[in-house]
Amino acid sequence: MEALVIHAPGDLRVETIVTPEPGPGQLLVKVDAGGICGSDLHYFQHGGFGTVRIKEPMVLGHEVAGTIRATGPDCGTFAAGQRIAISPSRPCGLCRYCQQGLQNHCLDMRYYGSAMRTPHVQGAFRQEIVCEAWQAHLLADHVSDQEGALAEPLAVALHAVRRAGPLLGQRVLVTGCGPIGALLVIAARRAGAGEVVVTDIGEFPLRKAREIGADLALNTAEDPDALKRFGADKGYFDVLLEASGNEKALRAAFDAVRPRGVIVQVGLGGEMQIPINTIVAKEFDLRGAFRFHEEFAVAVGLLNRKLVDVKPLVSATVPYRDATRAFRLAADRSQAMKVVLRFD
Questions:
Q1: Judging by DSSP bridges, how do beta strands 2-8 and 11-16 pair with one another?
Q2: Are strands 338-342 and 314-319 parallel, antiparallel or unpaired?
Q3: CATH of the domain at 256
């Protein structure tokens, strides 16, 4: 079967690889759809991000949905023909963090399509994959393959919103309206946020944010002082969900957050210098949000029960053999939110 293998920046190839037979507790899955993530783009454009670099050929991809083709022994009620979303997170379950329920901090994590360890963990952009049965989550008939592939980034957003604490009636600011920022709007709304305001430097993502439920969308490229009105009386927002990974966006939002507000840093864009004096003086609660664990099942449940709608975020579906075009489209924020690969 064929897979999308990254060798170096811009060097993405369709190659033939072997898929093993499913063993006990494992499923053989035909991959139907895979969403291109920001980390996939970093590997494609730059060969990695931060200190994480490609050292050997690696199959990309971790946002996938598919159809079970065969099951190994001891797979419970899973059966061939069932449609599933696959969690790419494979914690060891044995280390002290897993034992404390902090599986996203596993000391022996194997996450699909990651060069964080060597040998690299091969990803899921392939025609077939063998996964553990506990990674599989059944999709309702009405959930499309594309929507199922978005369960992973939705889980990231749900984890970030969970890190923010109770949002019922809260005023929430989301900075950065890429796919994760948009999903943060959806997750915050689902958590009961009373008002959600978003900022970005592009009109297309802002339009999408309005479409999926933002009360106000501000273009900070056209109006650098767009947040100034929210700075009166030491700030307006109770919670800041920072999804851009941009230091300038984070610092600009500080004046708009009220004293003792919660700031959740979700986006990763390299090291930042932040105004500690402001954090101290306004008694901000600064929190990080990294990946997810149990939120993946929650994300699939929300999709299955039609409690969230991620369809507006799917900008295009492209055959995997045309992956280079798909990756270039995914990098164009003037016309693409989430680009999904089709594995037929």
A1: antiparallel
A2: parallel
A3: 3.40.50.720
Q: Are residues 53 and 140 in the same domain?
A: yes
Q: Which residue range is the domain that position 39 belongs to? A: 2-150+310-342
- 19 pLDDT band, cuts 50/70/90, is confident
- Indicate the burial class of 67 (C-beta count within 10 angstroms; 0-12, 13-18, 19 or more): middle
Q: What is the spatial distance between Cα 174 and Cα 196, in angstroms, rounded to a whole number?
A: 7
pTM: 0.96
Residue 301 resides in a domain = no
Return the structure tokens found at 131: 């996964």
Whether residue 266 sits in one domain with residue 240: yes
Contact by Cβ (8 Å): 238, 259: no
**Cα(150)–Cα(163) distance, rounded to whole angstroms?**
20
Count: domains in the chain: 2
DSSP state of 37: P
**Is 48 within the bounds of a domain?**
yes
- CA 35, CA 61: separation in Å to the nearest integer? 7
Same domain, 170 and 189: yes
47 to 7, 38, 300: CA distances (angstroms): 8, 12, 31
Identify the bridge partners of residue 31 per DSSP, sorted by sequence position: 66
* pLDDT score recorded for residue 184: 98
Q: Based on the domain organization, do 237 and 317 belong to the same domain?
A: no
Q: 239: which DSSP letter?
A: E
